[in-house]
Amino acid sequence: MKHLSLIAFVFVLLSQAFFADKASAKDIYFDSKWTLWQNADILIWTPDKEPALDPKEFCLSLRRYNTGIGEPKCRLFGEWERDTIAMRYATWLSNNIEPGLQPHHLKARHPAMMAKFQTLEDKIVLYVADKGNHLLLAIFDENSSEPQAAGTVIKTADKIAQGDEVANAFFDRHTKRRLTKEERLKMESEPDDLYKETPTFRSWAGISAGYAQAQVPLTPYSWYKRHIRSRVGDYRVTKDSVSLWNFMDDSTPLFTLYAGGIWFGFIGGEIFYRYSNHAVKTDDRDSIYEELDHWNFAQHEIGLNVMFARTYEPFKWMDLHLFAFLGFQYSFYSEDIELKDSKKNPSREYETRFKTEDPYKGALFGFGTQCVFLHHYGLSVRTGISSRGKDVYVEPSPDAAAEPTTIGATTVDWFISVGLEYHWTPFR
Q1: SS3 state at 294
Q2: Distance, CA of 46 to chain centre
Q3: Which of 158, 193, 252, 374 has its CA 20 to 30 A from that of 209?
Q4: Which residues touch 247 (CB under 8 Å, ≥6 apart)?
């Protein structure tokens, strides 16, 4: 038992020493998203008289550690090692690269040195400085006159092991196909990122299906219970006539046609038409409805939204537009009521049943998202709250008791919908 404990103790010590050694083998100060090309041309640049990294062994190490790199070419960057300005900058880097510094702190300031980086095309410059017990490394490319990555690896006398250390430190990333001369010329002629953000007008048209109800999610049911449980007696009698939902079913499918556009990728507008059908909540205990076959109202709404959006591009084939909207609408109700065939003459209550306003005026607001695939095909989800109402005050009349009651002073509902859209850009 003692022997097993001793063996376990030694194993733990060796494991800790092994992982500690691995952890200290490299120290990355920073590493940006620089591009590693397939069949890369890597130029080894050093301020030392004797290079600490063998180009041939380093290329073999790259092929071992990164199978996607293809057939890399590695050589000493003699042109820069014979250049006074380049060597002065190389010496300065050797004395100043240290942990905690950001790339812009190490940027080349001399115009001639900055111009040298711009002429690299798709070549990668690997800076290597011998610091005694470790090598100081930095990566440069044509995109900037500051290093894209920097750090250290342990120095070793074994050329193969030294190449493996450097390859493992910075070159274990995905590779990209190198551009042809024609592709590079085309890329150089493209506008820069700021110019690409020049505002454009994006437009769309869509159709959606959804659901609407009086109760807003996450709010107490007690707020709506009086409206939802209300029933209509004698074609017009309820506890109050403030809300349409005292008279009609609030929960119903909702269908929408809409079209809109957005400017500057930020502000836009949308017109819409919404349709839903609402059955009247007649009181089944009231015998007066024995004459009635059916009674419902078709709701038609037209309106205009102002939209505020923010665009993201999580993938090249998908754009994500998050938006909020605020608008107004006019609501019209078309009554559909029929008596049973056996009933020839309607009752007096039927003749004085409640009526709706034409139109109701209201507002709506909410938020949603548009997922646009391949710049044209969209899937939209939105939710919000809409309202409709009428003027409460009416001129008093001595015949008011015999006249139909106009309902719906204030009505609010919540809606959610999912739509299919087509997007296009009429001009840029």
Answers
A1: strand
A2: 44
A3: 374
A4: 230, 232, 238, 241, 280, 281, 354, 407, 408
* 346 cis-preceded (ω within 30 degrees of 0): no
Distances (CA, A) of 92 to 42, 47, 104, 222, 313: 22, 10, 14, 74, 40
Mean pLDDT, the chain cut into blocks of 10 residues (428 residues total):
47 44 67 89 93 94 91 94 94 93 92 92 92 94 91 93 92 85 71 55 96 94 90 88 89 97 92 97 91 94 96 90 96 94 88 89 96 95 94 52 68 96 84
Positive or negative, the CA dihedral 218, 219, 224, 225 is positive
**Token couple for 186:** 């085309």
C-beta contacts of 293-297 below 8 A and 24+ residues apart: 293/338, 293/339, 293/340, 293/341, 294/336, 294/337, 294/338, 295/335, 295/336, 295/337, 295/338, 296/248, 296/335, 296/336, 296/337, 297/248, 297/333, 297/334, 297/335, 297/336, 297/356
Q: Quick one: pLDDT at residue 9?
A: 47
Residue given tokens 């009247």 in the structure block: 280
Q: Are 110 and 85 in contact (CB under 8 A)?
A: yes
